[in-house]
Structure formats: C-alpha cells, structure tokens
Design brief:
- The protein is α/β, with parallel strands linked by helices and 117 residues long.
- Helix content is 47%, strand content 20%.
- Strand 4, helix 4 and strand 5 form a beta-alpha-beta unit.
- The longest helix has 13 residues.
- It is globular and about 35 Å long.
Length: 117
C-alpha cells in the first residue's frame, strides 16, 4: 500500500473531501495543491508514492500535463488522474502514460486505485 500521497485539485471543497476520505482510510496525505505548478514542486520536494491529480485546473498546466511531467521526471511516482472530464483522447493518453484514470465522485474507486498504485 502506498505510504505518501499528494492530492491536487483546484476546487478546495473537492480537495478537502478527498484528503479527508483518504486520511480516514489510513492513507497518509503529505501534501496538497490547488494548481499544477505547485503540484510539480510538491512532487519534487516530497517524493510521494502516488500523485492524485484533477484534470481541469485553470489557469496553468492541466492534470494531464502534470501527469506527463511527473511520469517523465519521477517515474517511481504513480499517478492517478481523478476527473469529472472524460474523453476518448484523455483516456487514451492516460493509458499511454501508465496513468490510472478514475471518474471523480467515486471515492471507493479512488481509494482502490491509490492502494493498487
């Protein structure tokens, strides 16, 4: 089971809900961010086991951009893309990068994805 998680979402309420849910399940959230640039800094500083990132986070890099950068610069960090937005292209890009995609709103599925990472 992953030990250290960073969670990123531009919606503070959604971010708080995910952090609370993961924490109640015994999963250690070591950092949070509200946008992509801060997420990249946190990954570099904290070296988490898993990054959970929303896709749409204007302005700045979106979740897929963050995922691609993390996979390239920190291949040991698993990435879970957690988003309301879905498209065939997004799903194909996630799969090509080795990034798990989880539809937003299903916390049980998110917990399983984090644990399996």
């Amino acid at each position: 089971m992953p030990r250290r998680i960073v969670v990123v979402d531009n919606d503070p309420d959604a971010l708080e809900l995910v952090v609370l849910d993961l924490s109640l399940e015994g999963i250690e959230v070591v950092g949070t961010a509200l946008e992509g640039t801060s997420a990249l800094r946190l990954v570099a500083e904290l070296a988490p086991d898993v990054l959970v990132v929303d896709h749409r986070m204007p302005p700045g890099p979106n979740g897929m951009d963050v995922a691609a950068e993390v996979r390239a610069s920190h291949p040991e960090t698993a990435v879970v893309l957690y988003s309301n937005y879905q498209s065939d292209d997004l799903l194909a890009r996630s799969e090509a990068l080795g990034v798990r995609f989880v539809p937003k709103g299903n916390l049980r599925t998110l917990r399983r994805a984090v644990r399996a990472s």
